[in-house]
Specification:
about 350 residues, alpha+beta, 2 domains, six-stranded mixed β-sheet, two-stranded antiparallel sheet, 13 helices
Length: about 350
């Protein structure tokens, strides 16, 4: 099973290499698409997936195999009762002969696609109302599970969804994603008041007062990050309990249980959480070292001079650690966890200056 984010930003789930080949052959899946790697909880370029080459080869073979037959039904676009989040397309397997039938005649396929899109958009406008905006102040504590969309039948708007649709894996996963997005927005709103920017500019490293101010701002960030991660854990526990109950009761079969695992993701992968913790600790150690010097650091021509050689050696090590921790994937290659993204933004373009030896 493959969870794919198309070049348009929409998501689709393909249950087999055969279905992925159909997507490639129809032009829906391009080389700009991304595929979700469940183990690392990251979106990666689809061309790096080992099965992509096999799907491309199968797509080329499909065109040469079949002869024209009656058109099969189109893939069904799945709607949910919750606002926001990507549209997800549930794919169905077709044989090579059926694929050839889809491609002939082309004008008919385009006409059906346009009509279906118009009907779907019209039904969405009638059936669904936009959700109420959410605002919060300070550090968000203990509200993630209570105020976020819940994994229950009450999530349907206007009774337009059947019980089967409400408990479907794609719907449950989408509501979890919406709840996680709400938690992330509340976290980012709470830390926007901390003034976490340009922490390593020369002006903020020049005096003990500015260094202590940097430490105070980072000290306020720590409980905010802990509260955010606690909310994510509570959300995950609530939705995980629902998914396990659906599996135990037989409401989900084996494929639906697998689909749930493919669709879920976390805003902060484990690697990003560890990276953020290390970066925060190294920043605190660096500012604490400079603030503790008997004589304030002296700056000259882009370098820094410390009165103590012992402190200087420790400063050199911390500077190397910060340089390493600032290296992340190329911008835009993947979504970075919110706490790590905040810390990288707080550092800005500056870095600790090299030390000048007396």
């Amino acid at each position: 099973m493959f969870r794919v984010r198309l070049a348009s930003g929409e998501e689709a789930v393909y249950r087999s290499v055969e279905e992925l080949a159909l997507g490639i052959n129809s032009g829906v899946v391009s080389e700009q698409a991304e595929i979700f790697h469940s183990k690392n909880q990251q979106w990666l370029p689809i061309v790096r997936h080992p099965e992509y080459g096999a799907a491309q080869a199968r797509a080329a073979a499909l065109v040469a195999e079949g002869s024209a037959e009656p058109l099969p039904p189109k893939p069904a676009e799945v709607g949910t009762g919750e606002p926001g989040g990507p549209q997800v397309y549930q794919m169905f397997s077709y044989s090579a002969r059926e694929l050839e039938g889809r491609r002939k005649p082309r004008w008919r396929q385009h006409a059906i696609t346009a009509a279906g899109a118009l009907l779907f958009l019209a039904s969405l406008a009638i059936a669904f109302r936009p959700g109420r905006p959410t605002s919060d102040g300070g550090i968000w504590k203990g509200r993630g599970v209570a105020d976020a969309p819940r994994p229950s039948a009450s999530g349907a708007r206007g009774g337009t969804l059947t019980p089967q649709q409400l408990r479907a894996p794609y719907n449950l996963a989408r509501r979890l994603t919406a709840a996680q997005a709400q938690a992330t927005a509340a976290f980012e709103d709470s830390i926007s008041r901390f003034g976490l920017r340009d922490l390593m500019s020369p002006a903020r490293l020049a005096s003990p007062d500015s260094l202590r101010d940097n430490l105070a701002r980072l000290g306020r960030l720590r409980p905010a990050v802990a509260a955010y991660r606690g909310n994510l854990r509570r959300l995950w526990a609530a939705y995980k309990d629902t998914s396990e109950s659906l599996t135990r009761s037989g409401a989900w079969d084996r494929l639906e249980a697998q689909e749930w695992l493919v669709r879920i993701s976390t805003p902060e992968p484990r690697g990003d959480a560890t990276h953020a913790d290390q970066l925060l600790l190294t920043l605190e150690q660096s500012f604490g070292l400079l603030a503790a010097q008997a004589e304030p650091p002296r700056f000259s021509a882009g370098t820094i001079m410390l009165s103590s050689d012992t402190a200087g050696f420790l400063y050199d090590q911390l500077r190397l650690d910060l340089r390493r921790l600032r290296e992340v994937d190329a911008p835009g290659s993947r979504r970075i966890g919110p706490p790590l993204r905040v810390l990288l933004g707080a550092i800005g373009a500056d870095s600790l200056p090299p030390r000048r030896v007396r």
